[in-house]
Design brief:
The complex is a heterodimer of chains A (675) and B (375). Chain A has 675 residues and is α+β, with helices and mostly antiparallel strands. In chain A, 37% of the residues lie in helices and 18% in strands. Chain A has a domain of 262 residues: 3-Layer(aba) Sandwich (Beta-lactamase). In chain A, the strands form 7 sheets. In chain A, strands 2, 3, 4, 5, 10, 19 and 20 form a 7-stranded mixed beta sheet that branches. Classes of the chains: A alpha+beta (675), B mainly alpha (375).
Chain lengths: 675, 375
């Protein structure tokens, strides 16, 4: 019967089937409910999360770089501003072959072949979707050259940007500084969000020190992008939600510099000349000139020549151009005002005299006999003077720059007392000027020599070392900035101010100008206030007929001054000068310090002309020009100008640059303002 | 009013007559037509307003409809007798494709017949339920152990061949078609339990024989964030698309995930996510209910069929369709691993559509013949 049990039973089969179908239906309902609960989980319970994820997908933040604050002179003359320019930007993720693309751009002479490895490193360092500027400030010709071949360079685009422009070029470059492309080192310290989209950053001078004030605040805009990260312009449901935050421009800076003074000085240090072959060239003196307002520390002029064009850096300097600047024998990049360390020569004497009075080693009335040399007991070789001055008082000693008087004074003071008192004027220290890179130079002391020299026998201070310091030679060095600051302090009877290049900040949003208060320093200590009178009287005598700076003889204001002529100690090892330059570069440095008017000082200056010879002839006329511009009325200035031109006419036949003569290339000591 | 009513009545009756003359089942046809319409509307958005994609899909629907209509006219006997032949030819082609098939995307699935290229595995989707139904048709049910063993071999051989291509998605569907036929035939509960227990060692064997990319899919399914830009990208982006659609959706043509190309394969395997983004929860539930209706109608037809062959065949065709839907929606919603199974009748593509519609043609043939056999 087992066999019959296996016969097909249609009725029970159908029942079985229906039963199974019902179960299947129930399972299907369960699966659908599971699916729906999953959908509820996704679309209802976690809607906020996924909506945000979806927005994050399609919205990309593009930085809007702020426009950089302007730099203006004290009267509002623009020294650094922004101008629209075009730059080439490369986005790595859109470039199929970086090497080929860069080569191609080099073939179009848009890039320097030599810069390609550095550029490639820069590009690889940035995030792949970031646009990296590869060439700044394209000129019309370069723009056209690229535009024609544009389709060969996917991922490389021309973008309009604001670039930095210095309308006066070289003028004041060491104070203003310059901006350059953000380097690897810069990136480590800069806030990546604030500098996204910014190509340039302050590299030197005010541009560097006040970077945070000038930069401003970056904004952003939200862009609609597709999965490939490309911008989509779809005016529809997605674009209404896109937000935009405008950037805030950086604040403007008012420099203390008076551009009129600055250019006048620069003009005087540049002379057009003709060489033996009849070619004209610019003879650029190597010099440092700084003028300070003694009443607040404002730096009115800050000249270091030769200079360089800061616009080159903002345009993206090629390696070759940079090398040329750095290797120039005249060192145009070198800031002579605050980094130039020179022997002070006789310009130190007024301060030495102040030290003598403070320690009561000399009095204004006591005289010293000058036989033309100074001898130390037990030292065979004497310290010599140029002249035999006979009996000299302090005033005369400053006036005629008697070395013997100061050899003796230094000897009586001793080096440590000299160090202590000259420190009061800021020698041997940073003055605290508000840009980076200042050098302290050397104000020697026994302690200094002990620390400075490694060899035991060289560490001991000899009395002989002190004697040359008395006239600003030996170990003593100063920077022109220190000199000007010291003269300003002296002119105000010891009340100094911290030198500064910025006197006001203008808020870019409100337009409100915020004047920065001057920073007074501790007054210089004196035994007795009459000490100032004696020293200043000596400095006044310098500027009078019979003094060492005759340039001021006819000035309609009173001047206190001191000339200096310092030996050049020889060339540093490794410096290469060609033979014809050698003689000139071994000449003495000319130095000059002055302030005016004596009664109510308004300007103090320090001038150093490298290899310029005597301070009274090479450096003093520059100070004279500054004082004239600062202190004379326009009418007086016009009269002065007329007089100068008549003098020039008189001397024209011998100095005309157009007539070649064997002596034409030898710098002539033309001093237009000498009467 | 009454005139209007009677006119409606007349139109209705006339339509029913036409349908029955064409051997068509009205409700099933309506459900399929609705799906086709939805497919065309959604495809327009998923293809970023590309009309040629929509037209191409419409042509495929048209062709498939003709195939369905043709199949529906076939006598049931012919259908039944063709089962072993169809299975045999399918198996032969699978072996052929194994030896010399053209490779697309690293998998040997296609057979190039000069005129058309098609996937022999598609034949199996139909041949499998056909053969299973044919095999149990003459035999007493529930099936004996011997029958179960024979059926197991019938099911596993083509499944293994397809899985080896490798085409995991189709292999699962072919396996499911055979499996549901077996269950509907009344497979004893103890065998079902045994198969479920066998799944554990089978899963292990499967894992060790998987291709790297298949294994990667499983890993990604368990933790999509392990490779968010690689194999996890599909799952993450499709969940973002669905989730950000919310209850009412972002609106037609406004799904940013789809329109801005964040969602991959949005016209094919992941089209369910496009619907979720643009039409929201309500849109997805509507689609699911429509599928449920079609599946339910197939089961209803099966339950009312006259003989074992028709019952089991239309039942397993309907349930395979259900597996089809759930494998895709489960994958797109992140409930199942990513396997290449399109959303039936909505995703862009013709090969599987023809098979599916032919299947529905069979179901309709079964339904239409019921009265002829009647008591």
């Amino acid at each position: 019967m087992l066999y019959t049990a296996r016969i097909k039973d249609h009725h029970s089969e159908q029942k079985l089937f229906v039963q199974r179908s019902v179960i299947a239906g129930l399972i299907i309902i369960c699966v659908i409910l599971t699916l729906i609960s999953r959908l509820v989980w996704l679309q209802v319970l976690h809607y906020d999360y996924f909506a945000e994820q979806s927005a994050g997908n399609r919205i990309r933040f593009e930085p809007l770089p702020p426009s950089r604050g302007l730099i203006l002179d004290r009267d509002g003359v623009p020294l650094a501003l922004n101008s629209p320019s075009y730059q080439l930007e490369l986005t790595r993720e859109q470039v199929p072959d970086i090497d080929a693309t860069l080569q191609g751009l080099a073939n179009l002479q848009l890039l320097d072949r030599e810069d390609l490895p550095t550029l490639k490193r820069d590009i690889l360092r940035r995030r792949s979707f970031e646009a990296v500027p590869v060439k700044l400030s394209l000129n019309d010709d370069e723009l056209a050259r690229f535009a024609v071949r544009r389709q060969d360079f996917p991922g490389v685009e021309i973008k309009p940007r604001l670039s930095r422009r210095y309308p006066l070029g070289v003028s004041g470059v060491h104070a203003i500084g310059y901006v350059g492309i953000i380097s690897e080192a810069d990136q480590k310290v800069l806030d990546a969000d604030e500098y996204a989209g910014t190509a340039l950053v302050g590299k030197a001078g005010v541009e560097k020190r006040y970077e945070s004030v000038l930069h401003g605040k970056a904004g952003y805009q939200q862009l609609l992008v597709n999965a490939q990260g490309r911008r989509v312009d779809q005016p529809g449901a997605h674009s209404s939600e896109l937000r935009r935050k405008e950037p805030t421009a950086g604040n403007d800076l008012f420099l203390t510099i008076d551009e009129r003074l600055q250019s006048a000085v620069e003009e005087m240090l540049r002379e057009q000349k003709t060489d033996a072959n009849g070619n004209t060239y610019i003879d650029q003196k190597r010099a440092a000139v700084i003028a300070i307002d003694p009443n607040n520390g404002d730096v009115l002029a800050f000249v270091s020549t030769p200079g360089f064009d800061p616009n080159l850096f903002g345009r993206g300097l090629s390696n070759a151009q940079y090398r040329e600047l750095v290797n120039d024998a005249d060192k145009p990049m070198y800031d002579r005002v605050m980094r130039g360390v020179y022997p002070s020569g006789s310009t130190i004497k007024p301060f030495m005299a102040m030290a003598g009075l403070y320690y009561n080693v000399v009095t204004p009335t006591t005289s010293e006999y000058c036989p033309g040399y100074f001898r130390l007991p037990g030292v065979a070789r004497p310290w010599t003077d140029l002249h035999v001055h006979g009996a000299v008082s302090m005033v005369t000693a400053i006036k005629v720059s008697c070395d013997v008087y100061f050899y003796s004074l230094a000897n009586q003071l001793g080096i440590d007392r000299i160090h202590d008192y000259l420190s009061e004027f800021g020698f041997g220290q940073l003055t605290g000027l508000d840009i980076d890179g200042e050098l302290p130079a050397v104000l020697p002391s026994t302690a200094w020599k002990r620390d400075y020299f490694k060899r035991k026998e060289a560490q001991q201070w000899f009395t002989g070392d002190t004697i040359s310091v008395g006239i600003g030679q030996g170990y003593l060095t100063v920077t022109p900035l220190q000199l000007a600051h010291a003269v300003a302090t002296l002119s105000k009877h010891g009340q100094g101010y911290k030198p500064r290049l910025i006197h006001a900040v203008r808020n870019s949003v409100t337009g409100e100008v915020n004047e920065l208060p001057p920073v007074p320093l501790d007054p210089v200590k004196v035994r007795d206030d009459s000490s100032w009178d004696a020293v200043i009287q000596g400095m006044e005598e310098v500027a009078k007929p019979g003094g060492t700076a005759a340039s001021f003889a006819s000035a309609p204001y009173t001047v206190g001054a001191k000339t200096g002529t310092a030996q050049v100690h020889g060339l540093a090892v490794g410096e290469k000068y060609n033979a014809s330059q050698l003689a000139e570069r071994l000449r003495d440095n000319a130095l000059f310090i002055a302030f005016a008017p004596v009664e109510q000082p308004r300007v103090a200056v320090a001038v150093v002309v490298e290899n310029g010879g005597h301070g009274g002839t090479a450096a003093a006329p520059i100070a004279r020009r500054i004082f004239d511009l600062m202190l004379l009325t326009p009418e007086q200035l016009a009269a002065q100008e007329a007089k100068r031109q008549s003098i020039e006419k008189r001397i024209t036949p011998t100095t005309t640059p157009t007539r070649p003569s064997p002596s034409a290339h030898i710098p002539a000591a033309t001093e237009p303002i000498v009467e | 009013m009454e005139l209007d009513n009677s006119r409606t009545q007349r139109t209705f009756t006339w339509t029913a007559r036409v349908l029955s003359a064409l051997q068509m089942d009205g409700p099933l046809l309506a459900g399929l037509g609705l799906l086709a319409l939805i497919s065309l509307i959604v495809l327009y958005s998923a293809s970023s307003a590309n009309m040629s994609v929509v037209l191409s899909q419409a042509l495929k629907f048209l062709f498939s409809a003709v195939v369905m209509l043709a199949v529906a006219q076939l006598p049931r006997r012919l259908i039944r007798n063709s089962a072993p032949w169809l299975y045999g030819v399918g198996l032969l082609l699978l072996v052929l494709v194994m030896i010399k098939g053209s490779s697309a995307l690293g998998a040997q699935r296609w057979l190039d017949l000069k005129i058309i290229r098609f996937q022999p595995s598609e034949i199996m989707k139909l041949a499998m339920p056909l053969l299973c139904a044919w095999y149990v048709h003459e035999r007493p049910l529930p099936p004996s152990l011997k029958d179960v063993l024979v059926l197991t071999i019938i099911i596993l051989v083509p499944t293994a061949l397809i899985a080896k291509q490798p085409d995991l998605g189709t292999a699962i569907l072919v396996l499911a078609a055979g499996g549901v036929a077996l269950i509907l035939a009344g497979l004893q509960k103890r065998y079902i339990l045994g198969v479920l227990l066998l799944m554990i060692p089978a899963a292990w064997i499967g894992w060790t024989h998987m291709h790297d990319y298949q294994r990667q899919r499983v890993v990604t399914f368990l933790n999509p964030q392990s490779d968010p830009l690689g194999s996890g990208y599909h799952i993450i982006q499709s969940q973002i698309a669905i989730g950000s659609g919310g209850v009412f959706g972002k609106g037609y043509l406004n799904g940013s995930q789809a329109q801005l190309e964040f969602l991959p394969e949005r016209a094919t395997d992941f089209i369910f996510a496009v619907i979720g983004e643009e039409w929201g929860l309500l849109g997805l539930i509507t689609i699911l209910l429509l599928y449920a209706f079609i599946i339910g109608r197939c089961l209803y037809i099966a339950a009312n069929a006259q003989d074992t062959f028709s019952r089991i065949l239309s039942g397993s065709l309907g349930l395979t369709f259900a597996v089809y839907v759930f494998v895709n929606t489960g994958m797109v919603t992140g409930l199942l691993p990513v396997v290449g199974v399109p959303l039936p009748l909505i995703s862009f593509g013709g090969s599987s559509m023809v098979t599916l519609m032919a299947g529905f043609g069979i179901v309709m043939a079964i339904h239409a013949r019921r009265r002829l056999v009647g008591r």
